[in-house]
Structures are given as structure tokens and as C-alpha cells.
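Complex 593.
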Amino acid sequence: MISENVDITGFTTFGIPVKTKYFAEYSSVKELERIMRTAEYQQSEVLHIGGGSNLLFVNDFNGLILHSAIKERTIYKKNDDTVYLIAGAGENWADLVRFSVDNNLSGLENLSEIPGEAGASAIQNVGAYGVEAGDLIFKVECYDRLAHKVVTFSAEECKFGYRDSFFKHEGRGRYYVLRVCFKLRPDTIARNLDYGPLKTLAERLGHAPSIREVSDEVTQIRDEKLPDPQRIGSAGSFFKNPVVRRKYYEAEILKRCAEVPCYDLPDDKVKIPAGWLIEHAGLKGCFIGGAQVYTKQCLVIINKGNATGESVAALCRHIQLTVHKKFGIWLQPEVNFIDTAVHVEILGSGTSKGVPEPACQCDVCTSSDSHDKRLRASALIRTHGMTLLIDPSADFREQALRSKIFDIDAALITHQHYDHVGGIDDLRPYCTNKKMPLFVTESVNEDLHRRLDYCFREHNYPGVPGFEMHVIDDLPFYFNGLKIIPIKVMHASLPIVGYRIGDFAYITDAKTIPEEQYEKLQGVKVLVLNALRKTPHFSHLTLQEALDVIERIKPECAYLTHICHDMGLHAEVSPTLPPHVKLAYDGLRFTVN
Ligand code: EPU
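Predicted structure with EPU bound:
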């Protein structure tokens, strides 16, 4: 039932060659349960896919891919106004919509020909031509991977938003959709005709359009604008249409370019068509390797035939940077990046006073070697198409300028000491249109509310940074599908959070690592660990203590950080270390695969 080393290229619409370590398809809850209870796979990273129409595998997948083959289409008539259409998660979406039209059920017609499967429609809240799946979903039946039972969510509990739902956040990784129940009407009346070209359909036809006519019209528009999934690989819209505050749109975006269009949204917000921005940034047809901006609809990236996950990711970044430069908007991918590689940049490798220390004339502080210049400890992680900051250090502004950081999706905070959070106010440029998610422990949360009270008031001074606080304990949590494991270590008596992402772990300010936390570090390939100096310190690991910890965890490679001038010159200390242990330095970059 579970196959190994499987080519899953055909399970994605991008058509980029990709393999997975394990693959399993199931046709019933029983089969799914059997797979999920198989001990061997419980430690593996698990990814449940649908039609693969919204996925970009940047590299091969080193875990278990699940796919539902649950097929079902049941029509249940409740009364003269309401019919329920129950669809198995593995039903092809376009076939399901066609089935609803053939059976004279109205509601889904605007969503014709969207690639994908019924299960994913509830997760992604697919939408087109003025309708979203969430508008029609009555309930969703899921398998709860933790409780090993079937649970049902009402539409309200699904928390549908623009290409968004509960299943992409709190429910991510825990619930697998089994069946979706749509609430439709037993008639052929098309009721959603407000979107663009559909507005003129009644006039063009000379009568009120039927659901079949709308479905045909939508199919035709899609054929003209979007690549034929049978011939050209793509994942549909690659980016989301950015939603910004109207004030920001008027004051900042129109100032740069008076022609930028927008659509009104509730709450004084507007939606800006990303395709327009990409086209007007001069990127139509632009390509990197086999990845190209589709000429008929710039929101789509296509596979010219020889694209790799990396070339698509590189083109994505090029588009983000170019659009940002021209319009001041950072585009967010709509496509889910599956990227098990973790790219790390050490932004700062120094202790709380940094190196050189002001008012010090020692050899290290006066060294001209750039490796001896250490800003306060901080790191930037890029993985799964996201950028995460570990600690907005007191030197964050300088680090952001030096490393050309244009986007940050969230910040993971290790603890509340000033050298680790002193740059929090400098996150302002990254919070102009959104609240920045900050992952903090309860005590850091309280501390930051006290120290930065001006950021948390009901009526804030305009322009102060906005934060969305996520309080964590020492249990793994998910951010946009990425599993992050907190590791609780002790800085004398102060608890500090280290973080493990994939096979990379970052621990700073530790003096001791509690026994039970070592389990979470098993199999880490690259470890960043603090080592203050050679002589003892009450709250920091010394060089020898850090080497002992490394010896116990046994990573392939370890980098030492949070270093003070007493450690000595980089050039003199480096040759004394075991070959797999290195002193980190500011600007150091590496990738953990
Ligand atoms: N535009 C351009 N240049 C382009 C593309 C678009 O100027 O290259 C302009 C269009 O002229 C139009 C505006 O941007 O004025 C909006 O374009 P369009 O109506 O094609 O819709 P979209 O915002 O680009 C969204 C969905 C599509 C969906 C269509 C129709 C997102 C991210 N995309 O695209 O969904 O089919 O509306 O409802 O919301 C998908 O999710 O994969 C998808 C295809």
C-alpha cells in the first residue's frame, strides 16, 4: 500500500520531475487509518496532496505523500430550494462541476474547469469569476490524524478567506479532507454575474444566462487566458492578488504609479491585480531556465518544458523583487512551496555587546579581519517559499540593509533580552500592510507588551509596527504548513527557545540543555549553537561545553555563534576546532538539505 521512491511528477500540474521517499493512495477511511497508524511513517514528514494544481516541489520530497482516491458524487435533495452535493475528496473538480451542471444544480458553474480535486477546494477555497468554493460549502468531513477519528466541520468552522481556510493554519497537517458537502439549488438559474466579462453575458445572449451558458463562458475565458493543463505545465495563478489598506494604496502606491488598478473590498481595503503589476513591471514573457511568465496572463508561471523547481523559485523571487522595486508591493505566492531545503544566513554572530566592543582596544576588537566583526546574534531562514527571522537583534536595521532583506513572513523569538529583541521597532518596513507574526513564549509576550506598549494599543499612532502574537510552548507548531519544533534550553535560570526546522537547529544563549530536549535534536544535520568564550560564564556555554553538546548531538556540521571578543581571533581559533565545527561569522550562508 505504501510504495517507496516514487516518481510523482504526474500528480502535479507543473510537470516538473519530482520524487518522493514514500507514497500512499487510499480509497477509504479504513485504509487511511491503517497508513496513519503504521509506526514507521509516523516520524516522517507527511504531505497530503490533491490534484497537485497548486504545488511547487522545489526539490524531491523526503517523506510520505498521501493522496485520496475517495470517489463519490451523491445528490441529496433537502427541499425545493436546497440540494446537497456530496463529493469524495478524490473527485476531479472540473468533472464535479460538469456533473452539477448536467444535473441542473446551480452554484458551482462559475468555478468550471479549475484544475484540482474536490478535497483541496475546501482547503484552498478555490475561487474564480466572483465565486469561491467556501460560499457553497455546507460542511467538510475530515480524518483527524491525531485523534484517529472522523470529524465534521461546518462552513463557519472552516474559516474561509481569500484562498484561505482553517485547514491552512490551525488545522494544517492534522485534518485530511474525506468528503465535501456543497449546498446548491435545484435549478438552472445563474446568480453570479457580477464579475468582469460575465456582466455583459445577459446582454450578449439576449436572455438571462443559464448555468450551462455561464459554465461555457467561463470555460472559454479560461481557455483564452490560462495555459491548457494538458499541454503546458503551470500551477494556475502563482501569486495572490495583494490586499492593502485603501489609505496605503492612495498614499503610497498611486504616488508611484497613478494607473495601478484596484477593486474595493470591505473594511476600507482594496485588492490589486498582481497580473497587472507583473505585466507593468515589464515581466511579460520573462524567463529563468525553463520557467517563464505566461504571456497571456502574467499571474501564471509556466514550465516551458525543462523547468526545475529551483528555476521557478528563482523566477518567483525575481518577480517579487522587480514588482517591489517598481510598486512597493511584495507579492505573496499563492502556490504552496514544498521546499525541504533550509537556506540559512547568519545575520549576527556576536554576543550582547557585539564585537568590536565599544571602548575596547584588544586584538580582536581592533582586528581588520571581517570575520572578527560580530553584530548581535540573529539568523534569517528561507524555506518553503518563506522568509523567517530568528530574533530582531539590536543590530537588525544594519543587518537588514547589509543583507538586502526585502521580505519577512514571521519572526521567531528566542527570548526577551535586549540584544535579541532590540530591533523589533525596525521591523516597521515589513509591517506596512500586515501584522507581522511573532512566535513567543508567554513570558516574552508579556515582556514585549510591557516594553512596546505603543504597538499594542487599541488606537495606535499611525505607522507603528503591528504584530500578531503567537504564544508557543515547547510543542511543535506549524506556520503556513512549515513544522517548527521549539527546543527549550536554559540561560542560567531563564528559559530560551531554540528552533528546529527540518534538519537545521538554532540554539543561542544556552548554558544547559534539559535532558528531554536532546530527543528533539536527534538527526539534526546542521546545528548553530552559542559558545561565548573559553573561560567559564554563569549563563553561556563555553567553547568546551559547546563542543561537548555538539559531540552528543552529532550533527554533520556545527557553527558557533554568540561569540565575544574573549574567544580570540577567528583566524587563530578556527584551526583549533574539530573539522566539523566552525566559528560562524556575519554574512555566513549555508543550505541544509
Ligand atoms: N491583468 C493584466 N495583466 C495580466 C493579468 C491580468 O493587466 O497579465 C489584469 C486584467 O486585465 C484584469 C485584472 O488584472 O483587469 C484581473 O485579471 P483576471 O480577471 O484575469 O483575474 P486575476 O486577478 O488575474 C483571479 C484568480 C484566478 C481566477 C480569476 C478569475 C487569484 C490569485 N487568481 O485572477 O484564479 O481564475 O481571478 O476569477 O485570485 C487560480 O487561482 O489559479 C486562478 C487562475
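The longest strand covers residues 175-184.
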